[in-house]
Design brief:
Blueprint lengths: L1 H13 L4 H20 L14 H25 L2 H30 L15 H8 L9 E2 L2 E2 L9 H15 L10 H24 L1 H11 L14 H8 L1 H22 L2 H6 L2 H18 L6 H7 L2 H5 L6 H13 L3 H6 L2 H8 L1 H7 L14 H34 L1
Antiparallel strand pairs: 1-2
Helix pairs in contact: 1-3, 1-4, 2-3, 2-17, 2-18, 3-4, 3-6, 3-10, 3-15, 4-6, 4-18, 4-19, 6-10, 7-10, 9-10, 10-15, 12-15, 18-19
Amino acid sequence: MGISRTKNCARMHNKLEIPALTGLRFIAAFSIVYGHFTIPQSYTIFGVAWQTTIIGMPLFFALSGFIIHYVYAQLFSLGWWAAVREFAYARFSRLYPLFIFLFAYFFFFRWLVPFDPRLTTPHGWPTLLSYLTLTSSWWYQTIEGKSLIQFTYGWSWSVSTECFFYLMYAVVFYRVERIQSPRLCLKLLVGFCIFAYLLLYWVYSTQDSWETYILAHHHSYISRNQDWNNSFVRWFVYVSPYLQILEFIGGCLTCQFYLLIRNSHELKRKAQPGLLALVGIIWMLVCLLGMSEALPQGLQEYTSGFPHFLHMNFLLAPACFMLILACALGGNLLSKVLSYPLPVFLGTISYSIYLIYPVIPSVVPFGHPDRSLRLVYSFIMAVIVASGLYTVIEVPTKRWLRKLY
């Protein structure tokens, strides 16, 4: 009977989908795709090379926390064990089919690590199993001086990071639902953002000492001075779930605050979603400009230290929380635009877009002299291929697995 109740709860929440959040998920995916397609080509907008990739991950992770709590908070309140079973099966049927399909593609056709013949040292099953169990980002792995994310299918690290979030939600963070005071929830959200910044500043300011200690005990680990992109520090701050979970937790708190506002006519009347959206957008633009090379040399000195370190993790998180809350509340231009059919459709296939976009450069005519046209070709091709994967892989396998359950 408990399982039946949890299924009914999930169906009820499915009927309460927020289209603008689906559209916002496309913005997250597009920022990553645009950033990776344009970085090698030095594209600029208004003379500025915008590092839009710094938007994608915090927005994805914050959205994940919001949506997971929005869909499953009431389900967990009906019974923990039955909710865990439903939650785990729903997440598995949502993520794993497409992930394993593309894993098989790269394994057989694109030389997936650890069986890449270009490697001079043989590597065994632990790395392969970390892919199959969606735990590849949970532990630091290097192969011949390169971290796992540098190899084929390395960009799937975020999927395994998400899986860690799901585990923590089922164990701990579903309890956010117990916060029933809007004022307390808002204070906790603001306080949590301050705590996250202070924690990351401590990580930044003490990295010399703790990195030295870790490298002394793990001689195969790579220092940030030796090779930043493959270093243990970069993995810990950017790739691993242990600090990235801060954005997910903030998303859960944002959702709880939204649910409390939604249930109060007075708070709904006082809410200013348009102002939230404006402040969130300005925050993002300022941070993007601060990370760009267009900033005057004198100001770059201020952004090259802790802010540059922070952009890998929580820099844009509060802005993401504002944009998510504004879209959920509705009644503003941002939520209206993102609720149009096209952004919603692109947001629906965003998981497919994210997993397939790195393959696109090999099938798009990048030799075309017009750089802007190459970019358009690339994006259109990514959408076409992602639409096919969504239609042929994601939807049917999810429906089939749900029927089995």
